[in-house]
């Protein structure tokens, strides 16, 4: 029985390796024009290699050319990121156009005499006016200041050497939205969840420096800012981060786009945390959401 199976196997390999000759003849002269020899094994090998080559070439064409955009589901993430970036560029262009229009209006008013040069201010949100406090005082003002200083020179409350951590600090709302989950240190929820619409800008709550940007499987795209007075603000579940580590930002500047990234996210929202000198604090004690 074993000899018969061995003989059958040997016969199969002999049959597939057996070469066949294919010839082409001239019909008029019956002269052989062209011929080649081919076995079943070489034919199968040639067809297999051709199929593999065809698959590789097709895959490269799909990956490297715009044809991939026509595949279902492939274009969604790419188009969404492109739409967000285009929207941000449009917003920047609108602000630039408004600034240029304000500039031209100021120039026109100055040339026509309707506005003096000292009353012209920049129209961008980052501009500020340096006040001049060296104005001469009137006689009544000097009298009031002298009387006030005389009354307050024994007031010890003005000698406070431990100012509060929020002295001269104004916190911006990181996003315009509703609170869906409040700060609760007992369950280790060290922040507030703010629900807002898609593509809503996430703003820096204070002026500071970006100390961390990255992706966390639980919290998605995360960005952290270091501020003065020992404050650190953390923004989680973002769709897109607009800043990189080391960037300086001003209060109210867009640093990310609200999203729904991370395993712990159940919808578009921002998880916002505020820390002071290494300890979490309730953001609602500093910001009116």
Task: Describe the protein's architecture and organization.
The protein is α+β, with helices and mostly antiparallel strands and 289 residues long. The protein is built from four helices and twelve strands; from the N terminus they run αββαααββββββββββ. It has helices at residues 2-16, 40-64, 75-112, 139-152, and strands at 19-25, 32-39, 178-181, 191-195, 201-203, 208-216, 220-227, 231-241, 248-249, 254-258, 269-276, 279-281. Strands 3, 4, 5, 6, 7, 8, 9, 10, 11 and 12 form a ten-stranded antiparallel beta sheet that branches. A two-stranded antiparallel ribbon has the order 1-2. A hairpin with a 3-residue loop joins strand 6 (208-216) and strand 7. The protein is elongated and about 130 Å long.
Task: Evaluate the radius of gyration.
Answer: 37 Å
Terminus-to-terminus distance: 87 Å
Mean pLDDT over the residues: 79
Biggest beta-sheet profile: 10 strands, antiparallel
Q: DSSP strand (E) fraction?
A: 25-35%
How many extended strands? 12
H/I helix tally? 4
Decide which structural class fits the backbone: alpha+beta
Poorly predicted runs: 119-133
Q: Percentage of helical residues? A: 25-40%
Describe the global form: elongated
Oligomer: single chain
Order of helices and strands: HEEHHHEEEEEEEEEE
At a glance:
By secondary structure, the chain is of the alpha+beta class. 32% of the residues lie in helices and 25% in strands. The protein is elongated.
